[in-house]
Amino acid sequence: MGDLFCYKLCYQRMSNEKVKVLIIGSGPAGYTAAIYAARAGLKPVLYTGGQPGGQLTTTNDVENFPGYPEGINGTSMMMDLQKQAERFGTSIHFGLATSVDFSGYPLKVTVDEKKVIEAESVIVATGATAKYLGLPSEQHFYNKGVSACAVCDGYFYRGKEVAVVGAGDSAAEEATYLANLCTKVHLFVRRSEMRASKIMQQRVLNTANIEVHWNTETEEILGDEHGVNAVRIVNNKTGEKKEIALQGFFLAIGHQPNTEIFKGVLNMDEAGYVIVQPGTTKTNIEGVFAVGDVADKTYRQAITAAGTGCMGALDAEKFITAKEMELVH
Fold first, then answer.
1. Which residues are catalytic?
2. Angle at Cα 41 formed by Cα 46 and Cα 310, nearest 5°?
């Protein structure tokens, strides 16, 4: 029995895949890291995660990423990045990282709860997911009037009437940003006050074309085959309901970083974003680097994610080179 156990254990160890650079996630950050790591001869292996291509695959038109003067469909853009990463030798696989063991070296990541990968370095590019209200109509009209990013999509609503849901700094920022593009912005706040900082609240209240609806919750987003054309709201104090005609509905109730499997392993802030050393992508674990929205709660743009993806690959290359030099000496 002991010999059989030893055989199984030894076989499992032998069957573990060994890689220099393992990239977890496949958005702009992950693919950019793959391009740079592959061109450095590190033969990176990338696992796409549960949403191959990341959040941009849910975006119809991307107009603010340099190099696409006519704009590009989000899914098409991610396919381009994937092809570019593969061209330089990145090995791309569908699969979800389900657990990690960073207690020793090499670093270990389990994919789909069964395959163990041993990596000399790991680049975490799992991104973040926007929070939603949970309305069926929210998903039905996503990218047809419903958006979770005013900076990304606000340009498409120039001269139109829109709404923003939220009460924090992000909601205030999105409302004032949209106010410069749209004829009117309705801000729906669940309570009788905002959570935003005083200065952000003043900006909202001092902007003529922003109307704040206090004690207000969204009951339903309305529209047709062309997209959103109205929203039905309810006052949670009086129960009064009304419909407002508009063309855009923006969610600004926060994002959730996809960091569940790294809890207790990587240092995170109170919201769950991975903390990196300033000016780098280095985490508290040697050889593990965090890039893109998983470590960025401020900008959350495709171009900034791609930039940190580049940084992560360069940081990983330096780390691996230093490790190899240690072995030589």
1. 149, 152-153
2. 60
3-class secondary-structure state, position 200: helix
Q: How many whole angstroms from its chain centre is CA 270?
A: 17
What value does the CA radius of gyration of the chain take, rounded to a whole number of Å? 23
Domain at 132-251, CATH homologous superfamily = FAD/NAD(P)-binding domain (3.50.50.60)
Residues 107 and 101 sit within 8 Å (Cβ to Cβ): yes
So where are the chain's domains? 2-129+255-328, 132-251
The structural architecture, per CATH, of the domain 2-129+255-328 is 3-Layer(bba) Sandwich (3.50)
- Token pair 């029995």: residue: 1
Secondary structure of 118-163 in the HEC alphabet?
EEEEEEECCCEEECCCCCHHHHHCECCCEECCHHHHHHHHCCCEEE
| Measured CA distances, 325 to 118, 248, 321 (Å) | 20, 56, 6
The residue whose two tokens read 């119809």 is 60
Which parts of 41-184 fold into alpha helices (H)?
74-87, 136-140, 150-153, 169-179
Rounded to an integer, what distance in angstroms lies between the CA atom of residue 110 and that of residue 203?
47
Per-residue buried b or exposed e for 297-307, using 16+ beta carbons within 10 Å of the residue's own CB: beebbbebbbb
Report residue 13's pLDDT band, with 50, 70 and 90 as the boundaries.
very low
The per-residue pLDDT for 52 is: 83
Predicted pLDDT at 15: 57
pLDDT of residue 1: 42
